[in-house]
């Protein structure tokens, strides 16, 4: 039986993952702080507020694992600082909150090309986020690096719509991947044996999901 904390439950991967968690009989409680209310569910505790950082500091229910599914773009955030706050600060704080509440496994959505040495803000921020989570000393840390995500966003991203046909044709880890497949792989990782740090690139997410079914 598992109690989980999920951050980013209204997003593309987070929304798919929330549905899987609600249907999983091994999951007994789900804590999902959000800015907008989620549909009610017997397992779900959904603190709502505009300040996600404040919501995190107010959590006190023990959890066994934490899923960090937060993510935005520089365009959506409006500035470099706002982007860094969502994709680095809030993710790192979410993981720390999970540790405070007793979680032993952190699973986080990063991105293809994440690197602290990248010259691109997006990839560099993802790399810095990964490094910060590693430094938290998790007994088990799973980092997933999807390529372009496929799925229905509440607010479509223009550049994704333009680039999607190209990413559908690219080979290997560059090929676009369905958000539901990323969520399914995270779920499978959460309830499989292991320890230490595991990094799954986009092509591995697709392969891992296919070989487990």
From TrEMBL:
Gene3D superfamilies from the UniProt entry: NAD(P)-binding Rossmann-like Domain (3.40.50.720)
Pfam families, sorted: NAD_binding_10
UniProt domain NAD(P)-binding: residue ranges: 8-190
Species in which this protein is naturally found: Serratia odorifera DSM 4582
InterPro entries to which the protein is assigned, alphabetical: NAD(P)-bd_dom, NAD(P)-bd_dom_sf
Stretch forming the signal peptide: none
Protein name as it appears in the record: NAD(P)-binding domain-containing protein
């Amino acid at each position: 039986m598992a109690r989980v904390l999920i951050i980013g439950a209204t997003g593309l991967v987070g929304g798919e993952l929330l549905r899987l968690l609600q249907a999983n009989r091994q999951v007994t409680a789900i804590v999902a702080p959000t800015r907008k209310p989620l549909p009610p569910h017997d397992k779900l505790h959904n603190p709502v507020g505009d300040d996600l950082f404040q919501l995190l500091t107010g959590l006190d229910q023990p959890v066994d694992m934490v899923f960090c599914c937060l993510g935005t773009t520089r365009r959506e955030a409006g500035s470099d600082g706002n982007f860094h706050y969502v994709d680095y600060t809030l993710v790192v704080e979410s993981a720390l909150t999970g540790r405070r509440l007793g979680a032993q496994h952190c699973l986080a959505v990063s991105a293809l090309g994440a690197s602290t040495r990248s010259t691109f803000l997006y990839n560099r921020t993802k790399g810095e986020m990964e490094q910060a989570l590693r430094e938290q000393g998790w007994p088990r840390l799973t980092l997933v690096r999807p390529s372009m995500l496929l799925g229905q966003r509440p607010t479509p991203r223009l550049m994704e719509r333009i680039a999607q046909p190209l990413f559908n044709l690219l080979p290997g880890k560059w090929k676009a991947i369905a958000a539901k497949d990323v969520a399914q792989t995270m779920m499978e990782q959460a309830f499989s044996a292991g320890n230490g740090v595991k990094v799954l690139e986009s092509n591995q997410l697709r392969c891992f999901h296919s070989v487990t079914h």
